[in-house]
Amino acid sequence: MNSQPAASAPPVSDAVRWTQIVVGIVCMVAAANIQYAWTLFVPEIQATHGWTRASIQTAFTIFVVVQTWLTPIEGYFIDKYGPRVIVAAGGFFTGLSWVVDSYAGSLGMLYVGSAIGGIGVGCVYATCVNNALKWFPEKRGLAVGLTAGGYGAGSALTILPISAMIHSSGYQTTFFWFGLLQGALIIAASLFLRMPQKEQVKASTKVAQTRRDYTLGEAIRTPVFWVMWAMFIGTVTGGLMAVAQLGVIAHDLGVKETPVSVLGLTMAALPFALMLDRVMNGISRPLFGFISDHIGREATMFVAFTLEGVGIIMLSRFGHDPMMFLILSGMVFLAWGEVYSLFSATSADTFGTKHAGKIYGVLYCAKGVAALLVPMGNLLMEATGTWATVLYVTATMDLTAAACALLVLKPMLARHHARNAELARRAEQGETGHAVPVGAAAGTANG
């Protein structure tokens, strides 16, 4: 019997593809509170146990470090087993995390709960972003932005219920029941996830995207990878510090309980800012992702990183005014959230999607490095007596990354794609007698 060539997978409708994005968003929304609602629990934990603010915030750092630094391992399992199994496991650990926190009578147990949450959220986040990258290569920025936006804006739906339950029933009860609810929702949604088969999707015609699927080893040997890694740290630090410390900053600036009225809605400045920030954070990811699909990733990075740096500087200058605190914190989160859509999309554009889980997993570890800088914000504030010093340092990091986007990253990526295109042309014309190692090609491209 003559062997027949393998048939291409049948094309899928846009409805099928968008269903995958919607399911991913649901999972991200359910996982978001572990990071974005954390600031609501810190004062209650401190009041109950008398632990120092810095020791409690160490739990947040542990969560972020575990979430990010285990992502390469999770990426390996994503590429091997697909999204369904990994997200279901992530849902279990996400729910377990807050259940453990609800019983935590010591800092050690609180840290264990944070580490479990890092595993769970890491599984959910990495898998859903990876799935979006693969389903929509021609709209990669938008698809990843919408998915990551679910994580950024998801907690806006639950900020008030969580805050109300903390005040009515205590933070332990809130941890327990929201933990069970969030975990169950993620597990249920995971049953609908799957990856596209080969030839079911088409590449972008507007953004340069590699034809090569780099392995992890090949990707990390390219200078462009480490430029993106450094830029990731520079831009994500300020936002992480705001996420973890916004309640503390509002308290120290004297605006935490001050009423603010907008369009007939009156709330205390902090919960109002928390809701607005989550919405802006969520809008940011698909908005800037969509823009990057049309004008390029590097130009979009420059605009967003500059906006974040300027917003942080203005927050340090005018944050004592409750209305300005509300507006400027929203501006910072609008400009910060896009890092999670732009860097993941740029990584897939640069290195392909076959090993995207592992490659972006290592790139995402930059968030873990940034998380280690979060407790240093408290130390720097205590040493200088003002948050202005901390905010100016993070703003400088943002503005430096903005300049690097145009002056360093853009020309490096241009050389990278040009070199790969030339190698592909030569291979098609039979000018090379053997395969060219991808790592060597990439190193030349980015040298």
UniProtKB/TrEMBL annotation:
Residues 19-413 form the Major facilitator superfamily (MFS) profile domain. CDD domains: MFS_OFA_like (cd17353). This is Oxalate/formate MFS antiporter. Residues 426-447 are annotated as: Disordered. InterPro entries: MFS (IPR011701), MFS_dom (IPR020846), MFS_trans_sf (IPR036259), Oxa/Form_antiport (IPR026355), Proton-linked_MCT (IPR050327). GO terms for molecular function: oxalate transmembrane transporter activity. It comes from the Bacteria. The keyword Transmembrane helix applies. One of its GO terms (cellular component) is membrane. It comes from Azospirillum oryzae. The keyword Transmembrane applies. Keywords: Membrane, Transmembrane, Transmembrane helix.
